[in-house]
Design a protein that fits this description.
This protein is 22% helix and 27% strand. The protein is an alpha+beta fold and 83 residues long. It has one domain (13-75). Strands 2-1-3 form a three-stranded antiparallel β-sheet. Strand 1 and strand 2 form a beta hairpin. The longest helix is centred in the N-terminal third of the chain and has 13 residues, at 13-25.
Length: 83
């Protein structure tokens, strides 16, 4: 996933699925998975949240000079992309 010029690099589907499972199995009732691009480590990181408002507060990839940027966000249970 994330193939193409709009993304820094591809993300392995099995890693994405692993992140979804980890979020669902957490003792904390997370609802969303945010996929963050770390400019310094040049890799994707998972970030979980309970509130959609947390997603909107993150700097987005391609729109900010920060080091950790939001690439996409997904609902953990329906697996639909929310951003």
């Amino acid at each position: 996933m994330f193939d193409g010029p709009d993304f820094p690099q591809a993300l392995d589907e099995s890693l994405f699925e692993e992140w979804l499972e980890k979020g669902r199995e957490s003792r904390i009732p997370y609802t969303y998975l945010m996929i963050i691009w770390d400019e310094l480590d040049t890799r994707y990181l998972p970030l979980y949240t309970e509130k959609i408002s947390d997603i909107q507060r993150h700097a987005r990839y391609g729109q900010s000079p920060e080091n950790q940027l939001l690439v996409a966000a997904y609902d953990l249970y329906s697996e639909t992309r929310v951003l």
